[in-house]
Amino acid sequence: MGRYASVPEDWTADGVMPEAVARYEADIQHLEALFDAPLSPERRKRTARLLQEWQAALEGLDWQGLSLSDRTDALLLLRHIRLMYWLMEEEELRFRQVCQSLPQAEELVGMLDAHRRLEDLEPRSCAEILTRTAEALQELTGKLESGAVAGVTAVRLWRFLRDLPRVLTAWRDFWHGYEPFLTWWVQQPYDELNRRLTECIEKAEKTASGDDKAAIIGDPVGREALEKDLSLEMIPYTPEELIEVGQREAEWCRTEMRKAAAEMGCGDDWRAALEKVKQDHVPPGEQARFVRELAREAVTFLEERQLIRVPELARDGWHIEMMSPDRQRVNPFFLGGDRIVVSYPKSDMTHSEKLMSMRANNRHFSRATVQHELIPGHYLQHFSRERYRRYRRLFYTPFWTEGWALYWEMRLWELGFPRTPEERMGMLFWRLHRAARIIFSLRFHLGEMTTADCVEMLVNEVGHERSTAEGEVRRSFGGEYPPLYQCGYLIGGLQFRALHRELVEAGGMSERDFHERVLRENCMPVAVLRAVLSGEELSKDWRPSWRFV
């Protein structure tokens, strides 16, 4: 049997590692697109074979003969392979849990996988699979109603079931009207399955949310998964140690907030000072202009101090979008990347929604947000990521991506970017928020907090509006972000700050050179970046022991 993966034959050719990474990424994406059934066993089986070939080739390399850049890429690719193995283990566990409550899931997904393998499907057998699955879904709906299936099991079932209709519809549409015999057998069982599936999805969601449609559904991953994720992110800390970091940072923020509150005439009542800040917002219709002014102000600050070069195309190349009301319910603040997406009230929002949006996106919160999302934060990061070592986007990690933008919040604070106590309150609110994210996200995944507890923490200990707190928690645990994502903001920022102290403050590298080297190396765990910028020797067995706080 020949090779399955697109592993290069000649690893000594010039530029082979960037090409190898691009081939590997294409291999992975190909299988993900081909076997698109939720929790597909066939996808895992073929991906495992692909990973084995890539891992054997990388481990067999003459690492001493590679350049530092190629050794870095090889190390990062091995790390990604370990990450993929771990994700497949977690997916297999989820699939087995789903099959315990819905045994027919294995047969149904097997049929969808067989279709993707281009196998001839026997119409009567397909009809029987659909019929048995519909009957199993009816039984499962009853168990969900009675409470026999609940908790995390209901959450994982809901997430599996909600992804089925898209794939089933595509499977049915492939045959419908083209293959008369299959259509004759399958149409009625398919319609019945669709009806039962809709009922079961609704019941699973209701059970997972505790009969409260507005409730926030979360799926805690547990200690073992957190520790494995931290190992793959090359962060030699326990969850408890990181929680302690978050608590120390939160206390620092509150101390500084009390100082700002005193300057604002609020004594040491930082909550009263925060309330004054929230009431200072631009009139409706002015937010986009205000964002534009804030963005230009940040660029001027950077350039006057020669902190980083801002290419003219980047300086003038971003644009603004306004966030829809529905999207604001999940993410009540700004978003960034290749543009900035601005939150502010829209005319068809309710009166209370308008007031909450204006308060949450006041002048001083917005000033701290714009430089995070645009320049020098995510927009400049995105601009560079597309132009330097673009293939390293595969090695994405929130500790690099979110950590960079958070690092700039800390660096600008140190350089006096906030000019007034109100502006300091705006920056401190966000930093306190990121400290709280470490605490509530890790404690949630350890099983020590519920989503409701997380909302209360943001309201009572950070100063969020309840609506924005709910949006933040919903965004954190809605399934779109990995467990360590929210932790990645401040922990990543602290990694970059420690690296700045080593290389710039103690090592003599200029601010501009440091910041541009970070961007031009592109995505990777910050510990690997430290080794690269320090000229440290890398091997396939390299593991960091860097304690950055």
* End-to-end C-alpha gap: 51 Å
Low-confidence parts: none
| Class derived from helix and strand content | mainly alpha
Query: Largest sheet, described in full?
Result: 3 strands, mixed
Helix content: 55-70%
Number of helices: 24
How many discrete domains? 3
User: Mean pLDDT, nearest integer?
Assistant: 92
Shape: globular
Strand order of the biggest β-sheet: 1-3-2
How large is the share of residues in beta strands? under 5%
Number of strands: 3
* Sequence of secondary-structure elements: HHHHHHHHHHHHHEHEEHHHHHHHHHH
Radius of gyration: 26 Å
Could you please describe the fold and organization of this structure?
This protein is 67% helix and 1% strand. The chain has 549 residues and is mostly helical. It has three domains: 16-98; 102-208, no CATH class; 226-534, no CATH class. A hairpin with a 3-residue loop joins β2 and β3 (340-342). The chain is globular and about 75 Å long.
